[in-house]
Design brief:
This protein is an alpha+beta fold and 323 residues long. 38% of the residues lie in helices and 15% in strands.
């Protein structure tokens, strides 16, 4: 049985900081209270003012870090109880985790391995389709965190979604302020941002490397699709559209992504369609009939087995984020 201690809390924070974040901005700060409480704060200095003026992506990122902390603490034998936004006055205090002595989770080693192995691999997927039952299995992992995941498998819904993704990307490409902000986070530093080698992976044997938000996209021929037919699409949705919901969506994202990692699947977020209000509202109304608030769209696929693993994107030192 593990007992909370400063060293163990530090270990939990280190694992939590491996969570995905928008542009790898790592927009979080952690604080310890005694030997058994962790608090997570938004680091507003790392919020993207152009792409994320409301803090949606910041909150999603911090929600993913919260979930990473939860599963890390459980794997290390310190199952936590969690309060999201525990202080109605301090909206930058996003989560409080109370760790208590317990037994390591039976799946501790696979869980810790998934935290270590999770990557955003923007290299082109294989042409093997992702079966619907695989998407359903992934979506189930998001349940229980206050948000839910919806596989987009209906042909009409997929077509509408692809058009909205295309429209959102075109809208952002025409905004020089957005382009400048995004460029600033490529090779931003040795501890954050997106390394150029990860943003624009070298082309493989298959032609037409899959475009992404950092690599840009070539002029599209008529009939060419931004999302290939073999790609799976999943939307992470909530009932409401506020900061609490965004944190829940981030937790669901982390849970889904860790299961995908365990299952050998690759995840690439398509957040552009959510960042542009027009396309976000159209996704809500035209694809989900006004019944779900989409917070993130994910592209799911298989990476080639023979490919080498990508190095993990850099992370800030624990001493820089933990007080």
């Amino acid at each position: 049985m593990s007992t909370p201690s400063p060293d163990l809390l530090r270990g939990v924070v280190e694992l939590a900081c491996r969570a995905p974040s928008v542009h790898n901005t790592q927009p979080w700060r952690w604080r310890t209270l005694g030997d058994s409480v962790l608090e997570l704060y938004a680091d507003r200095d790392r919020q993207l003012p152009v792409a994320d003026p409301d803090g949606r992506n910041l909150s999603l990122s911090c929600g993913a870090a919260t979930h990473h902390a939860i599963v890390a603490a459980g794997a290390l034998g310190m199952p936590p109880t969690v309060e999201l936004m525990p202080d109605p006055v301090d909206t930058d205090l996003l989560a409080r985790l109370h760790l208590s002595p317990g037994q390591p989770h039976p799946d501790a080693q696979p869980t810790l391995r998934a935290l270590e192995q999770r990557r955003t691999d923007r290299r082109r997927f294989t042409s093997w389709p992702v079966p619907d039952n695989r998407l359903t299995h992934l979506a189930e992992a998001a349940a229980g965190w206050g948000a839910y995941a919806i596989p987009i498998t209906d042909v009409t819904a997929r077509f509408r979604t692809e058009l909205l993704v295309h429209h959102a990307i075109t809208s952002q490409e025409s905004d020089r302020h957005y382009a400048q902000e995004q460029a600033e986070w490529i090779d931003h530093s040795t501890v954050d941002g997106i390394p150029a080698t990860t943003a624009t992976p070298p082309p493989g044997p298959r032609p037409a490397q899959r475009p992404n938000r950092f690599a840009g996209r070539p002029e599209m021929d008529e009939g060419q699709r931004l999302v290939e037919g073999s790609d799976g699409l999943i939307a992470i949705c909530t009932a409401h559209d506020d900061q609490h919901s965004w944190l829940q969506a981030g937790q669901a994202l982390s849970a889904l992504w860790l299961r995908a990692t365990t299952d050998g699947l690759s995840i690439v977020p398509l957040s552009q369609v959510i960042e542009v209000r027009e396309t976000r509202d159209a996704l809500h109304n035209d694809v989900f009939d006004g019944m779900a608030r989409p917070q993130l769209l994910l592209r799911v696929g298989w990476q080639e087995i023979a490919r080498s693993s990508l190095p993990r994107t850099p992370r800030r030192d624990v001493d820089d984020v933990l007080a």
